[in-house]
């Protein structure tokens, strides 16, 4: 199977973390998100341990909670000694309400509102990752009102395209996030931050992309960032303590995706940084990383019930299920690849070529095209693998479809951690 937490039992059913998925579909109904808690903890520990071992004790992984945000995930992150990054007051509120310590949170985003900045400062958030002039002024003002000095990192764009493994002039520089090194604007911005009374610049941040399958783009980014650290030391006499290399390690969605050894990649990045620091004569920074997808994606499976199989003669066959872009918009948005199975007939021959469609009223609201399955029939349980990241967090109520519950499985037991939405939830805000 695609990942080691997935197996098939004697009845030919898909088993997730030791539990028969068809039993879960029967018990909780479909559509249903299943999350393997032990896998999430294992992924978190892998980062915590590898980063401590190779980057040093001060290094911290921050869980990029936009990938999957609900109270339970912040509780797990706290127990596993992860910090978190958040991008809205809503994520901040959810984390606080789960008891996650504000000091271990990093607030991201290219448009933090005054209300959000005040809310975060009132709760004594650990860090803001500053993105623009306007929010720098606002952070300084509210920190002054609160009588504190607020720690910040500056988000810069190093101009790296992770999929060509090269520094580029456009692309990453031309984006709404961060401030460009190449145009000279990042260097000027550092001067602005250093002049603020109530803001303390602790270091720099970059995020180069997603689905990165080796260490090279991170090493390229580190080169540019370390050179920037040296330049800022020359220009302002300021030496950054922290270097945040962002998120982006890749996840295996389909058989053709590589399986990467994240710990080994971290080791290689660390050796690269160490050599470069010696060359440039800068102190080895405290390294942060921000994994999202690689923490939660492979812990998730979504279950649906097949409703119809429609073959359009001379064209193709559509298999329609009881969810869709309302619970997983990623194929509609990006054409993302997924592995699909019939969970109750895993041992049967997958000889039927089809397109899996959701139930939303959009022609492009598909879950996957060109899928090979044993000929499905109404009532079969269809499983989409590796849906732990950017599925629930991107779900919507389009067509007034209730969002599915999340059932967490661990140690052979299952429990609801997010309940299914009800019709009352759908109309709760309607006056
Ligand atoms: C999205 C994002 C991440 C997480 O990326 P993954 O590909 O999910 O690991 C981390 N940092 C920032 C700034 C992001 O925007």
Can you say what the CATH homologous superfamily of the largest domain is? Alanine racemase
CATH topology of the largest domain: TIM Barrel
Low-pLDDT runs of 5+ residues are: none
Count of all domains: 2
User: How many helices?
Assistant: 12
Rg estimate, integer Å: 23 Å
The backbone outline, from C-alpha atoms, is globular
Fraction in helix: 25-40%
Ligand set: pyridoxal-5'-phosphate
Summed up, what is this model?
With 431 residues, the protein is an alpha/beta fold. It has helices at 21-28, 37-55, 71-79, 89-97, 114-122, 133-146, 185-194, 216-236, 262-280, 293-296, 330-334, 423-427, and strands at 6-8, 14-16, 19-20, 32-36, 60-64, 83-86, 105-107, 127-130, 150-157, 160-161, 166-167, 179-180, 199-205, 242-244, 286-289, 300-311, 317-321, 340-342, 352-357, 366-373, 381-385, 406-410, 413-418. Strands 4, 16, 17, 18, 19, 20, 21, 22 and 23 form a nine-stranded mixed beta sheet that branches. The protein has an eight-stranded parallel beta barrel with strand order 5-6-7-8-9-13-14-15, surrounded by six helices. Strands 1-2-3 form a three-stranded antiparallel beta sheet.
Question: What labels would you give this structure?
Answer:
12 helices; binds pyridoxal-5'-phosphate; Lyase, Ornithine Decarboxylase, Chain A, domain 1; alpha/beta; 431 residues; TIM Barrel; 2 domains
